[in-house]
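Hi R.,

Here's the input for the nicotinamide-adenine-dinucleotide complex you asked about:
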Amino acid sequence: MRITMIGSGYVGLVSGACFADFGHDVTCVDLNEQKIAALNDGIIPIFEPGLEALVAENAKSGRLKFTTSLAPAVAEADVVFIGVGTPSRRGDGHADLSYVYAAAADIARAVKGFTVVVTKSTVPVGTGDEVERIIRDTNPSADVVVVSNPEFLREGAAIDDFKRPDRIVVGLEDERARGVMTEVYRPLYLNQAPLMFTGRRTAELIKYAGNAFLAMKITFINEISDLCERTGADVQDVARGIGLDGRIGSKFLNAGPGYGGSCFPKDTLALVKTGQDYDSPLRLVEATVEVNDRRKRAMGRKVIAAAGGNVRGKTIGILGLTFKPNTDDMRDAPSIAIIQTLQDAGATIRAYDPEGIEMSKSVMQNIEYAKDAYDVAAGSDVLVLVTEWNEFRSLDLARIKSTINEPIFVDLRNVYRRREVEAAGFVYHSVGRPVAHEHADKVAAAE
Ligand SMILES: NC(=O)c1ccc[n+]([C@@H]2O[C@H](COP(=O)([O-])OP(=O)(O)OC[C@H]3O[C@@H](n4cnc5c(N)ncnc54)[C@H](O)[C@@H]3O)[C@@H](O)[C@H]2O)c1
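And here is the predicted structure with nicotinamide-adenine-dinucleotide in place:
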């Protein structure tokens, strides 16, 4: 298959490289000239484990190309994927579909012969109808079928997710397109990945319903963790206790500083707006959005409380800035609201992230960047673990203790055990694991 991918960001680049790896001929298109120039020089503009080697290998074989010229790439394609961004629209939280619609018009002008146009971007239910209308209005003679194929990959594990998906969802109402999509995904299909065909609108909604459900699950355990703190229960045991129930499942039950990232915040918000537009409010999702928004600043206040109630003139050391480990993506990262809250209260911020510092510089100001976790701790008054990168999981606590001003450690990801941090001489704060009830933990350790 000759595949053209419009948009070469986290989704477009990974999908394009993986399709090329399946043996298809892929051209990745992007408006951003610097991005394409970098890719043509073998430089990957984002951090995603394994991507550099995958791109290099497939570019070398000639199956993967990069260009800013959309028209020729579309003209020769059997399948054109739209993988452009759908951020929150400023002001009202609807998905901003202007990039998708612009791509649809560009495709319509360039298309030649029968072509399947596939929306891979996350788009509200009904967007496929509008993409189809734009293509027909722009080029009435275009022989095009519009399909929905939402993407479920997770940054940080994107290649593995793409190559070993739980399912592939394809929404269409046309048999010719069904044959083409089966061919596109044949290598995965042969690998037993379930290929689920459904209606186009249903496929669009599956993506939002999935993300909203996961965001709700995270938010649920976060609220339970607050209740644990008030009542003396331990959220990790609660999560384990409920997660072992097969109907609930153990994933996405880690209490923390609230969800962030490029998808959950904007997708939950967009789904809320869709529900309102169709007079079918999604009150659970509305509550999820509100609770999560409040939680991020509340985590900043938790740090202030741990510092004794006042951080003016103090230096707060931050470990991890990206919204999760193994990505450089800073979009809607909880660290942004936490750091803002601390800066508003007069704190100086000293931070380190293994991959996110460059991106962080474009979204936050007045941060002293350190070269590693120990460099953050030296001269800080409080150390806060915000993103659980592997290199923060087994820190030399004695070494940190010897350089930090005050031995206060706030672990917003519950990475450490209280007894080991306290044994190293720290005052330890975590999420949903109150002091009194780690007594059992201590007893177990002593036994
Ligand atoms: N990032 C994820 O983990 C993830 C996972 C699943 C789904 N999605 C969805 O996939 C879509 C893309 O997300 P992303 O994170 O890859 O975004 P991104 O911002 O990293 O990439 C989008 C790219 O599209 C390019 N672009 C915009 N308009 C264009 C046009 N008309 N022609 C050519 N290029 C154009 C931009 O320059 C940019 O490089 C979004 O709808 C998102 O919700 C993202």
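One thing worth noting: Residues 6-12, 29-32, 35, 83-86, 99, 102-103, 106, 121-122, 151, 153, 155, 262-263 surround nicotinamide-adenine-dinucleotide (CB under 6 Å).

Cheers,
M.
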